[in-house]
Specification:
Bound molecules: guanosine-5'-diphosphate, manganese (II) ion
Shape: elongated
Number of helices: 13
Strand content: 25-35%
Oligomer: single chain
Structural class: alpha+beta
Length: 385
Amino acid sequence: MKLHEYHSKRLFAAHGVPIPRGEVATTPHQARRFAEELGCPVVVKSQVLVGGRGKAGGIRLAQTPDEAEKVAGEILQLEIKGLPVRKVLLDEAADIRQEIYLGIVVDRANRRPVMMASSEGGVEIEEVARTNPEAIKKVTIDPFLGLRGYQTLALAKGIGLAGQHFRAFGRIARGLYDAFLACDASLAEINPLVVTAAGELLAVDGKMVLDDNGLFRHPDLAQMRDLDEETPAEREAREAGLSYVQLDGEIGCMVNGAGLAMATMDIIKHFGSAPANFLDIGGGAKAERVAIALRLILADPNVKAVLFNIFGGITRCDEVARGIITAFEEVRPTVPLVARLVGTNEEEGRALLEASGYHLITATTLAGAAQKAVVAAGGYDEHSS
Ligand code: GDP
Ligand code: MN
């Protein structure tokens, strides 16, 4: 789950990272009032969960409260990369002398957090990694030792920061790491961390991505979720405990297990079509959950055929079959359906589907099921097999 800039920065501030004074407005009128209170100039910043807001016109300076009101009005009308702007952050403008990058991510290969710094702040780190990788300095953090002083010093020196800022930089790096740990984040980033004309370090932008698996420990953070980030279908799936990602293909997939779902998507592509979604109904899925999943799949107008690929282990095929039938009673499918149910209780599952009177094309192998689904969707190409 991604957090908005203003949430991220406030969490950083709670761990000792200096941030500009700021307020969040939802109307131009409010923006004017905050601009008056904060004192101009202010920066008016769109709060949307995408990068590159600056280039999209979503970050602008205002010299007067009048201008803040006007600029906020314009930004609140924007849609940035498909996301509507519903809030703007008004920050006391910083007089920027230098922009640096400071971030932490989990390095899965090393199984440790990595802190990165770069003198090329304000630019997306992926861009720096491509064009100027030597500019990025990294330290690996031992979770039992924590972030050590010599490590932040190495980063500060590595990016050529002036010695007078080392102490402040170290404090900010530790604050960022504390916030990262405390929130169970998978990413925490300050870009840019700026040196102001007054010689102070200030986190002008902030970004955090939280580990969804840790969210149960943070009900306060879970509430910060921006519902615009998900499609309505994805939201319903999350609430039902399903892993669902909407894609733009034409074959709806209902699969148990993430690995099997990936394999199913690959083989659909192999036979010349494309999956309409990634969906893992999980282990031991009950009929009700299967019904929700099928409803989600069939609600997508791009879906021309549905492929059920169930490998019964803990999940029982008869239970899944019951879910499929329950769902059929609710949403009458008008597209062809292909089912491959193998494993625990597969005979019972197949018998239930047959007895239900709904027409399902059956298959026993993964390749066979995928081919039949691609044909059923009207797109099988002999040559692609
Ligand atoms: P992003 O484009 O979505 O990453 O948004 P940022 O908050 O990083 O802002 C983009 C750029 O706008 C920064 O790199 C700065 O150059 C500039 N900027 C942001 N805040 C201020 C500010 O307070 N004063 C000035 N002068 N520039 C700012
Ligand atoms: Mn930024």
